[in-house]
Every structure is written in C-alpha cells, then in structure tokens.
Amino acid sequence: MTGRPAPPASAGDTRLVGIRVLTREELHAAAVILAQGMLDNPLHVRVFGSSPVPRERRLLRFLGGVIGHVEAHGEVLGAFAGGELVGVLGMMEPGRCRPTLRERLRLGCLIVAGNPPATVLRIRRWLSVWARNDPAGPHWHIGPLAVAEAYRRRGIGRRLMMHCCEQIDAVAAAAYLETDLARNVTFYETLGFAVIQRETVLGVPNWFMLRPPSPGRPDEAAASPV
Questions:
Q1: Which of 97, 111, 165, 221 is the most exposed place for a label (fewest CB within 10 A)?
Q2: What CATH class does 14-211 carry?
Q3: d(CA 34, CA 175)
Q4: Contact criterion met (CB below 8 Å) for 189 and 211
Q5: Taking 50 as the threshold, does the pLDDT of residue 30 lie above it?
Q6: How far from each other are the two terminal CA atoms of the chain, in whole angstroms?
C-alpha cells in the first residue's frame, strides 16, 4: 500500500492526487487535517463545545492520540497533491481496534490533561457507546476520514476509500465504521457498507456500518461528500 506524492496540481485536478501510507513523522499534519475537516461534525460540537477555537484545539489534541493509535495498529493513508497532504484516512487491522489497558490509560491521561471535567465525561460516554457497537467478528476498522477544505467535493475522500476497500477486498475481509453525518451514510452505502445499528450519542444520531467481505468493486462515479 505505497505510492509517491503526485506532482503539483490545482485543487480541481484530482487526477494528479497520489495516495500512500503516512510515516509517523507525518501524523501531526494528518491530525491537523482531521481536526479542521471534522471540526463541525455534530458529535464533536456536542462533545468539545460550541466555540470553534477551543473546540479545534481540544479536537486536535484528541485526534492526535487517536491517529497515533490507528497508525500503531494498522495504517494511515494520505492523499497528496503537489507534495501537500490534502486527505487522511485511517484503517486498523482485524482484532486490533480495541485498545489494551495500557493504551486506554495513556489515552485517558491525554483526554484528562487536555479537557475540562465536563468534556472528559462526554468523551467517555461517546467512546463507551462506540465500543459497545463495535462488531465482535473480525473486521478492519475504518476512520477517521477528512479532506482539506480547498480539496473537498473533488472525489478525494472517495479515492481514499476506494484504495482502502481494494486492499480489504484483496484479503476478503469485512470493514466497519461509524459516522455522525447523515449525508455520509449514503456515501458509504455506495461503497458497499450497510447500516447495522443506529444510536443517539449525547443527543446526536450516529450510524454504525458494516461492509461484508468482497462485495464487489464500488461505483467510482457516485458522488462523494468529502
């Protein structure tokens, strides 16, 4: 799952966007794109607060820990245009998405240190619901996914997901993800995912979606929200 950054390209020319696995040194840049791209997600607004500046700061700190966990247990894909990172997608290997006790303690310390008590409680409630809905069977755990603002609505999110799904299909495995955006449900359905559960988290609807092994190549022509 390797590639080379694409040559210089405009935001509208996604033909020149390349995808490759990110290095550990690139994870902070990935967390920045994720925090900016997911800043206004309903669940993040509910958890981290309505004020954009502190919300982005708290979200960046949180996602820095999350993306580090993803990289340690799978891969973080990056989409590049002209050598610039413009999109990020995480994918964790089967059986490795649930953190160990040591990892939970480390992430817990990170959460407590970077947030007021009320936010810490909301994060715990959020993550407990997501953990409860995580399928028991083997699956790749997909996410988080975001694209830089200047490159949104250009199909880069779809390119990242297609790359991910092709790798998973090559080993005939299932894939799973969560989303708090209704428009993303339709997007993921075009890639072969189906809703297996819906639950309200802190007053925000969340959808839990599973893609069975080797469902066939998704339709590249379908619209992408990212």
A1: 221
A2: alpha beta
A3: 20
A4: no
A5: yes
A6: 21
Our CA angle for 177, 92, 145, nearest 5°, is: 50
- Share of residues in the chain with pLDDT > 90 (%): 77
- d(CA 39, CA 155) in angstroms, rounded, equals 20
* pLDDT-derived band at 216, boundaries 50, 70, 90: low
Give the tens place of pLDDT for each residue, 40-86.
999 999 999 999 999 999 999 999 999 999 999 999 999 999 999 99
Phi-psi region of 160 (alpha: psi -120 to 50; beta: other; left: phi over 0): alpha
Residue predicted with more confidence, 101 or 150: 150
Backbone angles phi, psi at 170, to 5 degrees: -65, -25
Which phi and psi (to 5°) does residue 6 adopt?
-75, 160
3-state secondary structure the chain: CCCCCCCCCCCCCHHHCEEEECCHHHHHHHHHHHHHHCCCCHHHHHHHCCCHHHHHHHHHHHHHHHHHHHHHCEEEEEEEECCEEEEEEEEECCCCCCCCHHHHHHHHHHHHHHCCHHHHHHHHHHHHHHHHHCCCCCCEEEEEEEECHHHCCCCHHHHHHHHHHHHHHHCCCCEEEEECCHHHHHHHHCCCCEEEEEEEECCEEEEEEEECCCCCCCCCCCCCCC
